[in-house]
């Protein structure tokens, strides 16, 4: 990269999208794809694009995130200068912790002021994609843009409670920007902002400062929507695979898409996705095990039948059990002669012998963390 | 704070492993892959950290590049320490001397200054050739309790195999009265495991004396131990009961990999009380395809299996295409088995390509032995590699 870029990741925004999975953790630390957490995709994209400093904005429930990130060395972000910087909310007697993205940005002006990179890329953790951030920064520079927003063309209405659609002109400049439009129809194309944007650090710091002075509170409404005509806001069309996780249904659907080879090749084939390692043993397939069309992480021991599933690390599937169309998270123990279909189990769940649980792909049956059934 | 370590481990990892043939053409034996995600050296290193020993010198000599890279700063074994940790000790030049390590004892002798830096009371000598889980702390307790100058870990082996080992002849109290290196007629079946704890000062004295002896071959088994015994030092055996396997031959390497399979394996790498640490591959979970059949196998991350895998150990990023069969085999990282190829009773090193319809190896029952394919080679489409054959170059068939 000709110019240097610092990353900022919002770990909590969108927590409300999948309350089932984010009750005890940030959106960033929601497990995904057998051995990852959602933040691994945003972080790996940054690292693979040459970014060496990433500020991670947290608010609450971030113990699991701290545990996951550690010193940052798994992402090669244990650096003398920079690396991973956790940015917990700042508050005192008069200030409450932030409630909006803009307030969160106000809280990290100290971090932004002390950096010396030219650009800032801001990303949320609700999307799974393999994206070259350096390309986006280059596009931003070439356009002389104030803000570049990354979008992905969608045909399914968003299930998110807060989202933005963009109308770029032929040059890519955004001419229209709508927040939560209600007229999106299935099958109709629209450009969904994927919560990744690039600005110069100076522009961001100045924007935050003037927003503080004017008492603004919403980045989307007060800064983006109000200034579409005056600011040079550009849209960067991301053409690759993009999976937004806006509900438990989305989560289930996009997890299952990993069983398709082109999706796996795009996400994992070209570049590494980094994550915390656990020194688990290789997975063991015992005599009589049947495994079809599934992703299996390390440390699993499988004696039963597993079809069309994603198994996280350390899952046990006992003899005679049949697990289909399910997402089984870390260290879940499935006893013998259990039948599961379209189930999501969170971490450390125990399913006793001879239990039967079933949901459907549209409404997977969810078992919360640590439960014993 | 006192800058001192009670016990420093010295791991002899210079072995060429010539009986592993093509598998050690470019790497030292301790760096040979094992058990789908490990390398042989992970076992002594994990034993060290699990036993509370955090200072380890790794002595390398033969093809050290990959081993050095693998060990790196020691962080995967939690051996990345401000004081102590793991250190690679290579032969070096100095004002007064310039030499390769001449024997096991000489290798340790040349690194006296490394050990002395930690002012240790005890030195643990290890080798990088074995697969086992052992609590060295318990052995150290025994060493202190008996007041020995040297404690040698020992295991019972079938008497007909004893002549391959250093054999310990002991009194009923465990003290050693005779040490025989690879005897033709062994008097006991108690084999030395090549794991020694020395009281540091004694070891240093004997190493210095040995270095001055022009007739010495500078080997622990042949020189140091007999000299100590002769001088009447207290030498005690420490009985180890458990899995211990020398993986120095193709057959033993294959067997030891197979010992990991099954619900109650002979050797369990998934034991959460004694974790085997390793450098982890960066890879997504393995994908098992719709038509795949995977039975009684160990499969590492990043594999893509569309064919049949039975009684086998597959390391990370191995691809088995549709219609291909892998049976009773050990496949190392990044190898590709293309459509309708058959691999039977083989060990295949990293990044090998077995092209469509090729055959490698023959069933064990046919008695031809294990086929071995060295690193990075290609077996051409339709080619047949017979059982027991060892290849380290591309093969196009007859």
Description:
Chain A has 373 residues and is of the alpha/beta class. Helix content of chain A is 23%, strand content 28%. In chain A, strand 4, helix 3 and strand 5 form a beta-alpha-beta unit. The longest helix of chain A has 14 residues. Chain A starts with a strand and ends in a 6-residue tail after the last strand. Chain B has 398 residues and is an alpha/beta fold. Chain B has a seven-stranded mixed sheet. Chains A and B meet through helix 10, strand 14, strand 15, strand 16 and strand 19 of A and strand 14, strand 15 and strand 16 of B.
The largest sheet of chain A is: 9 strands, mixed
What name goes with the CATH superfamily of the largest domain in chain A?
Spore Coat Polysaccharide Biosynthesis Protein SpsA, Chain A
Oligomeric state of the chains?
Answer: heterodimer
Figure out the total of helices of chain B.
8
**From the coordinates shown, what is the CATH architecture of the largest domain in chain A?**
Alpha-Beta Complex
* Low-pLDDT segments, ≥5 res of chain B: none
Distance between the termini of chain B: 69 Å
| Number of structurally distinct domains of chain A | 2
| Strand residues, percent of chain A | 25-35%
Let me know the average pLDDT of chain B.
Answer: 94
Structural class based on helices, strands and sheet pairing of chain A: alpha/beta
* Widest beta sheet: strand line-up of chain B: 5-4-1-6-11-8-12
- Total strand segments of chain B: 31
Q: Which structural class fits the helix and strand makeup of chain B? A: alpha/beta
Q: Write down the CATH topology of the largest domain in chain A.
A: Spore Coat Polysaccharide Biosynthesis Protein SpsA, Chain A
Catalogue the unreliable spans of chain A. none
Arithmetic mean pLDDT of chain A: 93
| Protein chain pair with the most extensive contact, residues per chain | A-B, 38 and 37 residues
